[in-house]
Amino acid sequence: MDFGFLPEEEKFRKEVREFFETDGAVEGMKKETDSGQGFGPYTWEVLGKLGSRGWLTPTWPKEYGGLELPDIYRYIVMEEMDYFTHLAALVGAGMAGHVILHRGSEEQKQEYLPKISKGKIEFALGYTEPEAGSDLANLAIKAEDKGDYFLMNGQKMFNTASHYAHYHWLGAKTEIVKPKHRGISLFIVDFKTPGITIHTMRTMAGLLTNEVFYDNVKVPKECLVGEKNRGFYYIMEALDYERIYTISRIKSELDQLVEYAKSSGKGKDPIIRQKLAQLNIEAEIARLSALRIPWMLDRKISPSSEAAMLKVVFAELDQRIVNTGLQILGPLGQLREDSKWAQLKGEFEYRYTRSLQDLITRGTCEVMKNIVATRGLGLPAR
Ligand SMILES: Cc1cc2nc3c(=O)[nH]c(=O)nc-3n(C[C@H](O)[C@H](O)[C@H](O)COP(=O)(O)OP(=O)(O)OC[C@H]3O[C@@H](n4cnc5c(N)ncnc54)[C@H](O)[C@@H]3O)c2cc1C
Predict the structure, then answer these.
(1) 238 CA to middle of ligand 1, Å?
(2) End-to-end C-alpha distance for the chain, whole angstroms
(3) Rounded to the nearest 5°, which phi and psi values hold at 193?
(4) What is the pLDDT of residues 12-34, one digit of tens each?
(5) Tens-digit pLDDT profile for residues 347-381
(6) Which residue among 189, 364, 367, 375 is best mutated to probe the pocket of ligand 1, counting the most ligand atoms within 8 A of its Cβ?
């Protein structure tokens, strides 16, 4: 069996790769992503260039800035972007936009989709709260229906892009009912709306994420996405899109280690050779798992259990790569970029601390295994 791309897909991949290899702003975008500060001028510049080619949303209808191509084209762009810039996914183009396309009002489609596809706006995911993470149905931020607007009060937690995104992709409670998930609605909230306060927090790897507070915020009725109280289901759809991603970033880490093993002479050590070969085998298998998702989407098969599987494969393989990286680099590998003794510019010290968040974000690995067990294997939920 040949797992390669079709000739026209390969042609597209070459074109996308050439862009990332030659564009002057790509290196700056990678630095911005790795800094954990969020989008800066280089990122916006690259997104604008990708958007002008229709590459941010290749599967979307042309009227909203897409190219009406199969999902494999979206995968190809993500794979190259992730490899060269370490930015794996966009909230607007990768998650929220899909839900707007399928569930949003015509006004919402006209307002947001062209700007998303052109790389002009970004959204922040607004799901997690202090008491609602894996158990998302437990969210408490209140959206009271006041006729022509919703009055919002409450707090969100770990809403990462909020300090630079334009809109909050917000899950809020619109009704107290049992089961709780039937009282949740989804909103698009402009971060400039009065009453919203954002407090930035820094993870140990330096990534900026945020608490977001709503204090009597008036959100116009037209900001509701789809039907009231159906938000939980729309969030689940968006989460399935969020879990579609590539293994490019961790492949680029592995490639870096292999280069280091060659140039330092450490690759002559049979133990190091074995470890790198093993990781390469696992990366190859992980890539096939990643490629399976667009293949399924193009055949209208829901990749729920497979996307959960991919998330676990990706996050746990990353752990093994960064661990091996630090073993190969030795004690000096733990030093940060600013030390004169730092190895590979402190890259693996950063990658090691950074890798932990991938076990948690987009749904924890334990929760993903529950999905594989119940939806994939048909095991009982309790
Ligand atoms: C760096 C970072 C960025 C993030 N960015 C965003 C963002 O942009 N937007 C957003 O909305 N959220 C974001 N999150 C939040 C993230 O999605 C949640 O942290 C995650 O879903 C887990 O929720 P929790 O922290 O409440 O932990 P909990 O749900 O309380 O889980 C605690 C532990 O219990 C385990 N556990 C929970 N339930 C089960 C179960 N049923 N079976 C087995 N084990 C279980 C978990 O796996 C975990 O180990 C981010 C988090 C981090 C760390």
Answers:
(1) 16
(2) 40
(3) -60, 130
(4) 999 999 999 999 999 999 999 99
(5) 999 999 999 999 999 899 999 999 999 999 999 98
(6) 364
Helices 41-52 and 71-85, axial angle in degrees (round to 10): 150
Please give the pLDDT value at position 301: 87
Ligand 1 pocket check: which of 123, 134, 209 to mutate, most ligand atoms within 8 Å of Cβ?
A: 134
pLDDT of residue 1: 53
**Whether residue 125 has its Cβ less than 6 Å from ligand 1:** yes
d(CA 104, CA 190): 16
- Taking the C-alpha atoms of residue 308 and residue 289, their distance in angstroms, rounded to an integer, is 11
**Ligand 1 close to Cβ of residue 361 (< 6 A):** yes
How far apart CA 2 and CA 6 sit, in angstroms, is 10
Interatomic CA distance for residues 162 and 2, integer angstroms:
43
In the prediction, which pLDDT does 243 show?
A: 65
- Is the full-model pTM beyond 0.90? yes
Query: Given this model, what pLDDT does residue 2 score?
Result: 63
d(CA 105, CA 220): 14
Tokens of 210: 């945020």
Give the CA angle between residues 113, 101, 135 to the nearest 5°.
110
Residues of the chain with pLDDT under 50: none
Task: Name the nearest CA neighbour of 164 among 129, 191, 201.
Answer: 191
Q: Is the CB of 127 under 6 A from ligand 1?
A: yes
